[in-house]
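User: I'm curious whether this sequence folds into something compact or stays loose and floppy. Could you predict its structure so I can see for myself?
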Amino acid sequence: MSQPPESSKSGRSSILLAAARSALDTNPARALADGRASLQLAYEEGSQAGQAEAHLVVALAALRLDDSSTALEAFEQAGQLYVLSGELDHAVDAMLHTGRLLNDRGHVTDAIRTFAQALGFARETGNQGAQARALNSMARQAHAHGEMTRALELLNEALVLHRALGDAPGETNTLTNIGMTLSGLGEYEQALDMLLEAYRLVRQNRPLDAAAQSLLLVNIGFLYEEMDELSRAREALERSLAVSREGHVTRIEVGAAANLGVTLVALGETHEAEHHLSWALQTSRQINYRKFEAVALGGLGSVSLTRGQVQAALSLFDQAIQVALDIDEQGTYLTTLVHKARALLQSGAPNTAREVLLEAHEAAKGARRPKVLRDVHHLLTETYERIGDFRAAYGHFQEYQRLYQTLRSAAAGREGARLTEQIDMERAHHDAQVYRVEVEALQAARASAETLVAERTRDLEISQLEIVNRLALAAEFRDDDTGEHTRRVGLYASRLAFALGLPDEQVNMIRMAARLHDVGKIGISDALLLKPGHFTSEERLQMQAHTLIGAALLADSHSRLLREAEVIALTHHERWDGRGYPHCLAGEQIPLVGRIVALADVFDALTHVRPYKRAWTVEEALHEINAQRGLQFDPRLVDTALLLFAAPDFLKEVTEQVRNDFF
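Assistant: Here's the prediction. I'll summarize afterward.
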């Protein structure tokens, strides 16, 4: 039987290739089959250009089918054949795909080399679009390594090229990458500007690009998570998950699910978190997307830790750390080290936790990761307290406070509000035909959730009061087994606050929060706390550390009550003249609640029996407080106390209220 002529084979190959390209988005399995058939014919006719094009189509189809192994091999072959046939522009695109897949599979060195080769070919041909894409890929690699300055240099160069070409999708991608790099540096305000600009560009494109939109929403959600705006992070990530599923963009769906799971863990919703994280782990392994395999493993470790399953958590954290090291994903590596240290502390191994945290501290400092550094210093404070090294704990607590204030700046909050408004506008104008069902489902879920929240809020308020009561009793139990001291201080403080004209809500909050002023005594040994006589200099420093311990115990709460208590615990031993502790604040540098509780605490100590003194009369106590006007106490508060506390039967009235009022 005669063979068909070469021209006939070439024609069939071209027809199959065209059919494969047209089926890429609608039927990738058919595209893969046609691409392979076209490839076979191209090899038979010996056409390098035909082989390269067929390999490229096979790779793109395999990528859509989440077959990364087939895609990687085909992209590599396409790149090599395009170079041999002199089609360097096409070679660059194939090489960039190759580099990204190599990176996802953990072959970091090979990925870096491939990106560099692609950039070299792009510059050789003068193709600005290809140069910009190569620069973006290299920047992502630098970001993953923690080389933020280098990443920004590459991205800014790419942005200039995209804008010169009028390439809106490329500009959007680059702005997004700049935003995430700035986020890694803690520059949240600038990061938000970049993401907002990228979002505006995405919304201008028609038809809407599901991949670009869902990827941007993932990044917005991640940024919110970095800013500790967890509710907003959840909203953005849930939206990304819906859009990526609607558009069948599995790789972005995996990222959205993994990040959403991490956010839900932080919100305390471990059951739903486990669902998303388990799916993300399974799917990331199926498509060999190792970056989010690490994220999902770390998230599942946090779920286990929340449930008290410490050994299971440590195993999952170690797996996540190993994957992150394999692919050189520094961000996930650092955050997982912090989670591992928290698990080690929970398991009663502070010395091992310290070693892990010091490793994380050095890496985070070199990578300029301020949020990770904040968490590291917070945990090192607790770690050194448990070890008994209060000087070291104090130093880390000071650094934690500095980073905490920086990261929670008002500017970041304002920009966060702007971003929420922008997302809300997008939702209102979104294509109703595509997302109508999703929006209706969200509205129904939220209506149900609001009813549930209203019910649970009442329970939460009661629970918070009980928690405060138990914490206060625990702190006072060893040197005041009645717990009445903390209640009296709360009442004195609330009456001072009321007399100063503070709102009723704040007055009531101060009454409760003041009860935790000495909660840090939980971390002071019995030998020191109950010691008769004077302290040595070293013992005095250890005793003064109860302010830091108390603040650390109460830190990072979502409760306004406990945040107020944190301020009181930290500042109630500061003095108006700046000679107090722990931070030697002076005058109005001391928060008002700290000044109020300082006076209330001393008044109660003076008017009640202590092992080293008798109970003073109200007159004697007020005389001493007046003597400390402008020294230990705020002069305005002294004037208020002299009028308020000198009222007939004031002390008797407070004592009776304490005994009749549980809270």
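Summary: Confidence is low (pLDDT under 50) at residues 1-9, 409-442, 457-463. The CA atoms of residues 474 and 522 lie 7 Å apart.
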